[in-house]
Amino acid sequence: MDIFLSLPFLQELLLSTLRMATPILIVALAELYSERAGLVNIGLDGIMAFGALAGFLVSYQTGNPYLGILAGALGGILVNLVYAFGTIQLGAQQIVFGMAINIFAPAIASFIYKMAFGSSSSLAQATLMAAIPIPGLSRIPFIGDVFFNHTPIVYLTFLLVPITYVFFAKTIPGLNYKSVGEYPKAAESSGIHVVMVKYKASIICGALAGIGGAYLTTSYISTYSDGVVSGRGFIALTAVIFGRWMPGGILLAALFFGFTDALQLRFQVMNSKTPYQLLAMIPYISTLFALIFFGIKKAGPASSGKPYFREER
Q: Where are the alpha helices (DSSP H) in the chain?
């Protein structure tokens, strides 16, 4: 018990919490932008997997992880435009198309990786993005390393939370955007191009989810492998529900899931006799309980998951 109360342990635990919460948070915000436009996208795992591969390949070839992040965003957009065309243009079932993305995108990513590196058991290593301490703030005892010594993606992800809040709650374009997910026919009648907003939402969602995947292979680990996403897309989906479709709530949910993930890793080190598979279940079990106890009392945007056709009045 003493180790849990030691400052070095707490500092490392909180530091890991922020790092592990980052991909969940940015992908959850991606889903928020999608659902606010009426698109329930459960294909986040697939988008992340393709973004992770794109980010890794570019970072590996160029030695520049920042280009890898950009490639991850572009890869995510490319995959999500397939989802957008099927669900917006063709009116296909969003859940079905999302599951198709989860099957299709990781398979394509795995195929491309094997074409690039063969079937060798050794994994190629790319350059990781270095942490950039914030001058002055990073030297504050205890909290300096925890909050102000991260890669730029971590800073940008957490900065995106207040930006998203202001956009949806305080700006006319944000309110118009939300109206598409609530009452698309009324939004169309007031002059808002609903289909265009949905495509914009798909681009934003694809870019952010792709960055979330690229973060894993350019800032977290230095290689790509099948299963690198490890269900984080579904956890991000849960974080949106847990967070009540609000940026602040999603932030708290992502931190909670990041904390459970960081904690289970430390339990594995401290309890070597316990099967690691049992401890690795902690984040997913906590996700399940969060969904059961916090995700059943409020629905999302009224038109989420429903196809929209402009000719319908």
A: 2-5, 7-35, 44-62, 65-84, 94-117, 143-147, 152-170, 172-182, 184-189, 194-215, 232-242, 247-270, 276-280, 282-294
Burial of 131 (0-12, 13-18, 19+ CB in 10 A): middle
Instruction: For the chain, 313 residues long, give each residue's pLDDT as a single digit of tens.
Output: 455 557 777 888 899 999 999 999 999 999 999 999 999 999 999 999 999 999 999 999 999 999 999 999 999 999 999 999 999 988 889 999 999 999 999 999 999 999 988 876 677 888 899 999 999 888 888 888 889 999 999 999 999 999 999 999 999 999 999 999 999 999 998 889 999 999 999 999 999 999 999 999 999 888 998 889 988 999 999 999 888 899 999 999 999 999 998 888 777 767 766 676 777 787 888 877 777 776 555 667 888 888 887 754 4
Q: Which tokens belong to 152?
A: 């730029």
Q: Is residue 287 assigned to a domain?
A: yes
Please give the Cα distance from 211 to 221 (Å, whole number): 14
In a domain? residue 2: no
Residue type, 289: F
pTM of the model: 0.92
C-alpha 230/C-alpha 272 separation (Å) is 22
User: 132 pairs with which residues across the strands?
Assistant: 150
Residue 309 in domain: no
Q: Report CA 102 to chain centroid distance, whole Å.
A: 14
CATH number for position 90: 1.10.3470
Q: 49 is in which domain, residue-wise?
A: 9-294
| Backbone dihedral region for residue 142 (phi beyond 0: left; psi -120 to 50: alpha; all else: beta) | left
In a domain, 3, yes or no: no
Euclidean distance between CA atoms 125 and 136, whole angstroms: 33
DSSP of 5-36: HSHHHHHHHHHHHHHHHHHHHHHHHHHHHHHT
